[in-house]
Design brief:
Blueprint (H helix, E strand, L loop, with lengths): L2 H13 L1 E7 L6 H17 L3 E4 L6 H9 L2 E4 L12 E3 L6 H9 L4 E3 L3 H15 L2 E6 L5 H7 L7 E4 L2 H5 L8 E6 L5 H14 L13 H13 L5 E5 L5 H12 L5 E4 L17 E6 L5 H12 L3 E7 L32
Parallel strand pairs: 1-11, 1-12, 2-3, 2-4, 4-5, 6-7, 6-8, 9-10, 9-11
Helix pairs in contact: 5-6, 9-10
Length: 344
């Protein structure tokens, strides 16, 4: 291509306008930050390696970053060789049987379960102690669901994934029932299932506190505000991240013309907006997605468009969960988390 034509096309791209609706809040929640901090501080205090049972959070960028500083990830605790090094359980929580196994082997373990997931565990245990059969609204196979079901004896929990699952339930007037939910579900879908459950079993007992966490709720609300205005809505997150996939569903349901779940800037589907004169783009990130990737996405659009950034969402998040006493005395320097943080 002629050099002057290249310059002309480059100039045209910079002059072509676009709007980017940037959702806030987005990205790391307090539970994810705490889990990552536990791994980082454990490596600083106890040295390499530190073993992590399952992905600490569902994001390959985070996992790779922690591997580079000394974390070893395993799917099952049985894979860990005899060691005196710390073993960390992920933010999603684990069944009681995993904790008991670690105790029997006298392993040194640190539980990075999100405090809000721990509240769901306690509510399930409370339902069980009070003689109730538990309905758990969630997704089969998700680590958080496995962990919650593993807090009570087998057979104490029935998993509810859809309205059809509620329809299949058999009524029993001789039993007490209670329900809890996974923390990262769709607000709308879960509300529909709960209403359906209440019609089927009017006396069912709700959890004492809302099971869907604040971060899930806030991120979905911000996406709802932005979605109707967008030609393309990008959710930064991993394909195995429940809360990220729910954000994609919310964006689609509330009016985004095209939605995509992306793990990095390389995944942006440019063809979707290449013929739109002045496209509108929405950007948010799941609770386990680092801000640095969001920053890279924005830079990619700035290199192609004269970009106007419009904030979407008004909720401020000030939650902070402290690490356990074994690590509370360790200093956490800004550079320790720099790998995961952008500057927007």
């Amino acid at each position: 291509m002629d050099l002057d034509l290249k310059r002309l096309l480059s100039h045209y791209k910079r002059e072509k306008k676009a709007q980017l609706f940037l959702c806030k809040p987005r990205g790391f929640c307090a539970g994810v930050e705490r889990a990552i901090q536990i791994v980082v501080l454990s490596i600083k205090k106890y040295g390499k390696p530190v073993y992590v049972c399952h992905e600490i959070v569902h994001n390959r960028y985070v996992v790779k970053g922690l591997e580079e500083i000394g974390a070893i990830f395993v799917e099952k605790i049985e894979e860990i060789p005899p060691t005196r090094q710390p073993i960390i359980f992920s933010a999603h929580g684990v069944p009681r049987s995993v904790l008991q196994f670690a105790q029997k082997r006298n392993l040194f373990f640190l539980d990075a379960t999100c405090p809000l997931v721990s509240k769901v565990h306690k509510q399930a245990i409370l339902h069980r102690k009070r003689g109730r059969h538990i309905f758990l609204i969630g997704h089969a196979g998700h680590p958080e669901v496995i962990g919650t079901m593993g807090q009570v004896p087998e057979g104490s929990v029935t998993l509810i994934q859809t309205l059809c699952d509620v329809d299949k339930l058999k009524k029993s007037h001789s039993m007490e029932f209670g329900y809890v939910t996974q923390t990262t579900l769709s607000i709308d879908d879960t509300d529909d299932i709960i209403k359906h459950l209440r019609k089927k079993i009017p006396h069912i007992v709700a959890p004492s506190v809302e099971s869907i966490c604040y971060a899930t709720t806030n991120r979905q609300l911000a996406v709802k505000m932005a979605a109707p205005h967008t030609d393309l809505f990008l959710i930064v997150g991993a394909p195995n991240s429940s809360n990220s996939k729910r954000l994609v569903e919310v964006a689609t349901r509330y009016g985004a013309k095209y939605t995509a779940l992306i793990q990095s800037v390389e995944d942006i589907p440019w063809k979707v907006i290449q013929d739109i004169y002045s496209p509108s783009i929405g950007v948010s990130a799941g609770a386990s997605a680092p801000e640095i990737i969001v920053f890279q996405v924005i830079e990619a659009f700035q290199s192609r468009f004269k970009l106007s950034i419009i904030p979407s969402g008004t909720k401020e998040e000030n939650e902070h969960f402290t690490v356990m006493k074994d690590l509370i005395d360790m200093p956490l320097e800004r550079e320790d988390m720099a790998f995961f943080n952008g500057s927007m």
